[in-house]
Design a protein that fits this description.
Order of helices and strands: HH
Strand content: under 5%
Mean pLDDT: 79
Number of helices: 2
Number of strands: 0
Radius of gyration: 21 Å
């Protein structure tokens, strides 16, 4: 019985970890400099 619970726990954990990955393009990441950030806050 413990082996079955262990297998279920491992499968659920691996599913949870793989489903939380970000599949968006890394190129869409916009890096702001501190100057740009302060200009955006002033608007």
């Amino acid at each position: 019985m413990k082996e079955v619970l262990l297998i279920i726990t491992v499968l659920f954990s691996s599913f949870a970890v793989t489903s939380c990955t970000n599949d968006e393009d890394d190129q869409d990441l916009e890096i702001l400099t501190p100057e740009e950030e302060t200009q955006l806050k002033k608007k």
